[in-house]
Amino acid sequence: MSAVPEHMSLKVTVPTAILVSVSAIKVVAEGPEGFLGILPRHLDIAMALTPGLFIYVTAEGDERFLGIDEGVLVKRGAEVRVAVLDAFE
Fold it and tell me: Which long-range contacts (C-beta less than 8 Å, at least 24 apart) are formed by 32-38?
């Protein structure tokens, strides 16, 4: 039986750079159907992202916000990868 992850490895990239590379305990992203909250035990998922707000909580408990352009999010195991056209903190 595998151990349950307590954190997720979050990486947010734009075409020219890695903007965020942290350990996170929660991610909230907006897609065409609305907002989705992702925790470490969440099922694997791939989703399109719409321009708007992207929220994550670091392993230390700090809540962070990004304004993002359209893109994609993929959660696989304890890894969350986000690729967007543009973003700012």
Answer: 38/8, 38/75, 38/80
